[in-house]
Amino acid sequence: MSWTLTADAVRDLARGAAVLGTGGGGDPHVGALLAEQAIVAHGPVEVVPLNELPDDAMVVMVAMMGAPTVMVEKLPSLEEVRAAVQAAESALPEGTITHIVCAEIGGVNSTLPVAAAATLGLPLVDADGMGRAFPELQMVLPTLSGIAASPVSFADEKGNVGVVHTADNTWAERIVRVACVEMGCTIMITTFPQRGAQARTSLVKDSVTRAVQVGRAITDSRASNQDPVASVVEVLGGRELFAGKVVDVQRATTAGFARGRARIDGEHDVLELSFQNEHLVAQAGDTVLATTPDLIMVLEHDSGEPITTEGLRYGQRVRVIAAPSDPRWHSAEALQMVGPAYFGYAVEGHRFDGSPDHPEQEDVA
To answer: Is the pTM here over 0.85, yes or no?
Structure first.
């Protein structure tokens, strides 16, 4: 059943999505401000369950592409969001856009689509393309379903707007990433147009609802003097990997990504996190605790507030948790696209529970 997303629910959505974003997706506070601004100006957003999408609905993903570290100083705007969606609509031969969906349920990319939906008067689908956040455009489940990313439209704060049609989704990432770097390392994009019948099988359902639930669990736990980190672990069906103090962060923005490592000292051990926008590997000494595609998340030790990769600082007391990804990410084909080897890490993939990641060979739906 459809439900209404109002301005007072945006903070829980943003906080929960910052958790699910595994350190990436951009500053959730910025996205929340934009979404609240759009809802106040244009009214609340209707959120439609994935299974209620009409077969002929035209669904598009709205997202920010670029390095989250840059977005801290180069703030997105509703004008950029509107320009990207309007450019996409003019390039689509299939007809008018009827629904907006999140490319990823992470950080700013969970709330920018809310802003787009409110501004354009369109419903938001209770779903996303990943169930988490990944750094590259083609890294969504629709790619595994054979759905094209293009036409991809993009816009920046200077008024530049473009549309590209590409040979495949990897080329879409490569070409639009170059444009992103040239346009200041962050742009608004609209991508993966698909009919409702396709969306029902290619997307992760109930993502928006799940993000609100995670955010609300943190809020409620604080109010009742419970442990918010434990509440998040329970909601996600995950586990706590490590607790300690951040003692070193190495981070650089290169080729449109925020890449780096963080070292966390615990009572008896040291954890190293490797990230490329998102946390991808958690390793204590020679022991790999969890890797992409499962979710690795850093929360403030006591408050449970999610900490993004650009927000990691020396001296922070944190707890690192892990949770399972959508099972489709553990297929052999998916691991070639989002497993640790793709990102250049010479470690065997491990699931959130510490077990080796053995690729599943079933057909991907």
So the answer is: yes
